[in-house]
From TrEMBL:
Upper lineage: Bacteria, Pseudomonadati, Pseudomonadota, Alphaproteobacteria, Rhodobacterales
Listed EC numbers: 3.1.4.16
Organism for this UniProt entry: Pseudooceanicola batsensis (strain ATCC BAA-863 / DSM 15984 / KCTC 12145 / HTCC2597) (Oceanicola batsensis)
Class in the EC hierarchy, top level: hydrolase
Protein name, UniProt field: 2',3'-cyclic nucleotide 2'-phosphodiesterase/3'-nucleotidase bifunctional periplasmic protein
Gene behind this protein: cpdB
Keyword Metal-binding: yes
């Protein structure tokens, strides 16, 4: 099941005329130079590219200096020039995530022999290997197979199997679980050595819920740590001198739980793994974001003593692990390591962005045609809006950008329920703000002005290629659903001033607003669920005055909720949405439904109706951050009074709400 290729890593041109060992003192960060049988190996990582090759924001239709593999490529070229031995790997989530990905999947398509643009760009850069991320499955297994067929590098994932065996090593895996690369490295004395470098890949097993429609009955997922414990010894038996885990899984709890999504910390404890490339969380490691995490050392860049890196997202950073290897008899061992990330841009005090590198022309040229085609694709007008569609205040009040989504979903499901046994049940619609700042930064918001609505705007309103679903729930589950969403808010002490409102670790895509009912959120009460959806305060609720058409919602009432496949299949662990309440599975993506809705209406008027608000708390104020461009809308937010409160961190603006 392994690939073996033989490619020398030596790059002597930079060191020509100079003793290799002496040059390395200046070129790598170690205070001790590689000498004798010691080898300095630099392993570079990209992760969560999400089809971002060009430094371009297709949603805003403008250049963007903060993204793009073409920019990251400058760092890659620099390291290859300065390092005697280097490797380049990708950590998954490369096929989906921006309009270019959707254009290829839905408009152009992938036929046998076609080349996917992100694969073409990766081939141009000469990647050594990659793993799959969870978003590789978004367009189905056939699309995935045709896309991977063009890769000039092995792609590995160990914990997705077409059929399961008695243990992971007996599985018929979807793609090879690992690869052992035969390489040649040069030591500090200029002597070449053969080395076998093993790379094994992992993806969150939650893909079976997130992409149930594509995967159910076709593949199965295994626990990441269980899988590693089975395969890594086999890699050792096959002669792997160094093993690097390509873990498309975040850095989370140190305590292993079966099927955990963010498993990189317990994965690092698996004997035989020498280093970890991580991702999935769209964060940077090492960084203060991970201070205090058990088993994690942000100063050394290690997890359980092993070097690990996470290179941001969309090409924002290149992750670099420096390994000093030493030959110990016939085996290699890691003598020491250092970890760093190289950003492609920096944000200035005045909120402007300074690019730190320029794009590499060969990478741009490799996808120029698809870039131009994507621009034509996203600029097509499908209708008009007489209301600005923005998400600057979507986490603190009813919001027009979410309203247009819930309106379209409800419009579609109302039609689908006609003639069924559920016709006549009240239809609600759940929607969440996808672009609401957070890790995406102060410019990461939907902002569609009055006027034409193009496909690029619909993609901006709804980032993911989810498909429509409907679930049937009761009033008790509805309340639980809303309580799960309300976990985004911190508990607020009545009578206190300027308390932080939002929990920054709670993703905005799990903040569902439920259209079709009215309700209040009482922030003085504790959250019923933690960030993972585990009930920690049974019997309590933050939801008050829950009404449907002016009548209090009782536990026994029944509702149909329009939502998406991710949520309906258990994504986010919402009460009433665990996969067993689905009554309708549509073939259409939520984006396509929004487009059809706009086309039919011609002009849409998705004004936020203020169907949810905060319960009043005398003498209490809270603070939250949003993008500074939201200033022009602050006076028109329904249900709350918002006032400026100065500058926030990292380019955000700070606002105050009086409860």
């Amino acid at each position: 099941m392994t690939y073996r290729t033989s490619t020398a890593l030596s790059r002597r041109t930079f060191l020509a005329g100079t003793a290799a060992g002496a040059s390395l003192i200046a070129l790598h960060p170690y205070s001790v130079r590689a000498a004798g049988s010691q080898v300095h190996l630099r392993v570079m990582e990209t992760t969560d590219l999400h089809v971002h090759v060009f430094p371009y924001n297709y949603y805003a239709d403008r250049p963007d200096d903060t993204v793009g593999l073409a920019r990251t490529a400058a760092h890659i070229a620099g390291i290859r020039a300065e390092a005697t031995n280097s490797m380049l790997v990708d950590n998954g989530d490369f096929l989906q995530g921006n309009p270019m990905g959707d254009y290829i999947a839905y408009e152009r398509g992938m036929k046998e022999g076609d080349m996917h643009p992100v694969i073409q760009a990766m081939n141009t850069l000469g990647f050594d290997a990659s793993t799959l991320g969870n978003h590789e499955f978004n367009y189905g297994l056939d699309f995935l197979a045709k896309s991977l067929a063009g890769a000039n590098f092995p792609v590995v994932t160990a914990n997705i199997a077409k059929t399961r065996g008695s243990d992971p090593t007996k599985d018929d895996t979807l793609i090879p679980p690992y690869v052992i690369l035969d390489r040649t490295v040069t030591d500090g004395a200029g002597v070449d050595h053969p080395i076998k470098i093993g790379l094994i890949g992992f993806v969150p097993p939650q893909v079976m819920n997130w992409d149930r429609k594509h995967l159910e009955g076709k593949v199965e997922a295994r626990d990441i740590v269980e899988t590693a414990k089975a395969w890594v010894p086999q890699m050792k038996e096959e002669g792997a001198d160094v093993i690097i885990a390509l873990s498309h899984s975040g850095i989370g709890s140190a305590d292993h739980e079966e099927g955990m999504e963010n498993a990189s910390v317990p994965l690092a404890e698996v004997d035989g793994i020498d280093a970890l490339m991580t991702g999935h969380s769209h964060l940077v490691f090492p960084s203060p974001k991970y201070a205090g995490f058990a088993g994690v050392d942000i100063d050394k860049g290690t997890i359980h003593g092993k070097p690990a890196v996470m290179g941001g997202f969309w090409g924002s950073h290149l992750g670099v692990i420096d390994l000093m290897l030493e030959k110990d008899g016939s085996a290699w061992r890691v003598l020491m390591s250092e970890v760093a990330t190289r950003p492609i841009s920096e944000r200035n005090e005045d909120r402007s962005i300074t690019p730190l590198v320029e794009s590499v022309d060969t990478v741009l040229a490799s996808v120029q045609a698809e870039h131009d085609e994507t621009l034509d694709y996203v600029r097509r007008a499908v209708g008009k809006t007489d209301t600005p569609l923005h998400s600057y205040f979507a986490l603190v009040a009813d919001d027009p950008s979410v309203q247009v989504v819930t309106n379209a979903q409800k419009w579609y499901i109302e039609e689908m329920m006609k003639g069924t046994e559920w016709e006549g049940l009240p239809i609600l619609s759940a929607g969440a703000p996808f672009k609401a700042g957070g890790r995406g930064g102060p410019d990461y918001y939907t902002d569609v002005p009055v006027g034409d609505v193009a496909i690029k705007n619909v993609a901006d309103l709804y980032l993911y290629p989810n498909t429509i679903r409907a679930v049937k729930i009761n009033g008790a589950q509805l309340r639980g659903w809303l309580d799960r969403s309300a976990g985004i808010f911190n508990r607020i002490e009545p009578g206190s001033a300027d308390q932080p409102l939002l929990n920054p670790s709670f993703p905005s895509y799990n903040f569902d607003v439920m259209d079709g009912v009215t309700y209040r959120i009482d922030l003085s009460r504790p959250a019923r669920f933690d960030g993972d959806g585990v009930e920690i305060e049974p019997g309590t609720t933050r939801i008050s005055d829950l009404m449907h058409e002016g009548r209090p919602v009782t536990d026994e009432m029944e509702f149909v909720v329009a939502t998406n496949n991710y949520r309906a299949s258990g994504g986010g662990a919402f009460p009433g949405a665990k996969g067993d309440t689905v009554i309708f599975e549509g073939p259409d993506t939520n984006r396509d439904i929004i487009v059809r809705y706009i086309v039919e209406k011609g002009t849409i008027s998705p004004r936020a109706d203020g169907n949810w608000t905060f319960a009043p708390m005398d003498g209490t104020t809270v603070l939250f951050e949003t993008g500074p461009a939201g200033k022009k809308y602050a006076d028109s937010v329904p249900g709350v009074t918002i006032e400026p409160a100065g500058e926030g961190e990292d380019g955000f603006a700070l606002y105050r709400i009086t409860l």
